[in-house]
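Aim 2 progress update. The chain analyzed this quarter is reproduced below.
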Amino acid sequence: MYHCITSNRALNLNSIYILIMYKLFQLLLILTLIFQTYSCINADQSAAILLDGMELNQFRDIDYKNLQKTIDAREDVKTGIDALRAYYPINSESNSENAFKTKAITNELGSNYFFFQQDNLKDDSLDAIAIWIEYDLSSNGRITILGLKESYQCKEGRGHQEWSDELCQ
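Predicted structure tokens:
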């Protein structure tokens, strides 16, 4: 009789152990799916904003601390284009041949992306610049920069003609 009680207790402990392991496996599977979905949404959206077949690896990271200080000191920065103007002065009057392209996306998770491209620059080495901004928009309308990147195309004889994170010569 004693042997049966011990066996039943061991059987119950094994069953509980198996049930706990099964629940942990389910939890791990759910967390993996959530993480993969979040990663796919973020990766797809941050790259989807780019134009002309560009890739994020063609951009270099820019330190955005000073831009954030500028934004924090102003009350008129409410959109991605406002953040861009605080960072990069757009002067279309100086060159009527400038070509501008912009694109903005807010993904399902609330991440905001803004893309800007300017071609035909009046510069001795730089032909075009592309700027990628990721930002958060708070409920009170304030922008927090989460990422800032630039890519460049050089004039002929001054470096690469394809988009690159390398500065022109």
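The chain has a mean pLDDT of 83. The radius of gyration is 26 Å. These observations will guide the mutagenesis experiments scheduled for the next reporting period.
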